[in-house]
C-alpha cells in the first residue's frame, strides 16, 4: 500500500514517516530532503531551489513531479511508498493520482497532522541540529544537555531558513496551497486527521493502528 502523510511545517511528518518506513520496510519519499540535497550541490538548479526554500516558497510542480515519477517508475518501490510532504497542493494531488494510475498503483490512506501555528513556531525556532553526530534537539521541548549530547556545543546549528518570517510564510503557503487537499482526499474517503500536538509515540500508535486495520 502507498501512504500520504502531510501537515504544516514541523508537524512531525518526517518523524512519523521514518518510523513507519523502518517498521514496515517502506520507502520514505521526502521531497524536502530531495530538494535540500539538490540545493546543497550548488548547481544552477540547486541555487534556484535554495532561494525558494529560504523565502518559504514552494518549488515548481514541474521540478517535483519529475522527481516523483522517477520513484514511481522504479519497481523496487512498487506499492510501498510513504509520501512525506507531497503532494503540497491540489494540482500535485491530482497529478499524483494520474502518475499512480499510469504505474498501476494507488493511494491507500492519507494522514493529516493537525498542529497550531504557535506550536510550530516553537518547534522550528528552537530546532538545533548537531553537524557532527546529526542528532536534533529543541531549546523548548528537548534541549541539548551533557547527558543527551556528547559533542561540543559548537556543532549545534540552526537551518538558515528557520526564521520567524520564513516560518510564517511557509505556514501561510501551507494554508493557501496544501489545506484544500484535505477536502480532496476526504471526498475519496482516504483521509485520517491526527492530533499532531500529542506525544510522538501516541501519534505513531494511532497511525500504526489505522495502517494495520487497512492491511488486514
Provide a descriptive summary of the structure in words.
This protein has 216 residues and is of the alpha/beta class. The protein has a domain at 2-115 and 190-215: P-loop containing nucleotide triphosphate hydrolases (Rossmann fold). Helix content is 49%, strand content 16%. It has nine helices and eight strands. The chain has helices at 13-24, 31-40, 44-55, 61-72, 90-102, 117-125, 164-178, 181-187, 200-215, and strands at residues 2-6, 27-30, 81-84, 107-114, 127-130, 136-138, 156-157, 191-195. A five-stranded parallel sheet has the order 2-3-1-4-8. A three-stranded antiparallel sheet has the order 6-5-7. A hairpin with a 5-residue loop joins strand 5 and strand 6. Helix 6 crosses helix 7. The model has no long low-confidence stretch (mean pLDDT 89).
Number of strands: 8
CATH topology of the domain at 2-115 and 190-215: Rossmann fold
| CATH homologous superfamily title of the domain at 2-115 and 190-215 | P-loop containing nucleotide triphosphate hydrolases
Quick check: average pLDDT?
89
Q: What distance separates the N and C termini?
A: 12 Å
Percent of sequence in beta strands: 15-25%
Quaternary state of this entry equals: single chain
The CATH class name of the domain at 2-115 and 190-215 reads Alpha Beta
Sheet having the most strands: 5 strands, parallel
Q: How does the overall form come out from the CA principal axes? A: globular
Indicate the CATH architecture of the domain at 2-115 and 190-215. 3-Layer(aba) Sandwich
Annotation field: number of helices: 9
Rg for CA atoms: 17 Å
Strand order of the largest sheet: 2-3-1-4-8
**Secondary-structure element order, as H and E?**
EHEHHHEHEHEEEHHEH
Structural class: alpha/beta
Percentage of residues assigned to helices: 40-55%
The stretches of 5 or more residues where confidence is low (pLDDT under 50) are: none
Amino acid at each position: 500500500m502507498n501512504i500520504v502523510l502531510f501537515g504544516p511545517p514541523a508537524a512531525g511528518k518526517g518523524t512519523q514517516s521514518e518510523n513507519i518506513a523502518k517498521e514496515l520496510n517502506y520507502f520514505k519519499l521526502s521531497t524536502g530532503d530531495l530538494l535540500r540535497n539538490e540545493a546543497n550541490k550548488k548547481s544552477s538548479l540547486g541555487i534556484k531551489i535554495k532561494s525558494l526554500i529560504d523565502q518559504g516558497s514552494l518549488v515548481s510542480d514541474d521540478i517535483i513531479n519529475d522527481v516523483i515519477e522517477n520513484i514511481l517508475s522504479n519497481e523496487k518501490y512498487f506499492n510501498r511508498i510513504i509520501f512525506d510532504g507531497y503532494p503540497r497542493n491540489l494540482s500535485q494531488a491530482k497529478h499524483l493520482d494520474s502518475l499512480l494510475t499510469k504505474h498501476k498503483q494507488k493511494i491507500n490512506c492519507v494522514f493529516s497532522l493537525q498542529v497550531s501555528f504557535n506550536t510550530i513556531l516553537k518547534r522550528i525556532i528552537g530546532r538545533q541540529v548537531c553537524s557532527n553526530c546529526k542528532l536534533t534537539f529543541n531549546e523548548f521541548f528537548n534541549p541539548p544537555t551533557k547527558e543527551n549530547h556528547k559533542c561540543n556545543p559548537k556543532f549545534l546549528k540552526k537551518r538558515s531558513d528557520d526564521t520567524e518570517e520564513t516560518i510564517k510564510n511557509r505556514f501561510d503557503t501551507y494554508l493557501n496551497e496544501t489545506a484544500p487537499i484535505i477536502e480532496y482526499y476526504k471526498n475519496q474517503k482516504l483521509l485520517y486527521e491526527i492530533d499532531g500536538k500529542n506525544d510522538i509515540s501516541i501519534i505513531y500508535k494511532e497511525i500504526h493502528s489505522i495502517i494495520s486495520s487497512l492491511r488486514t
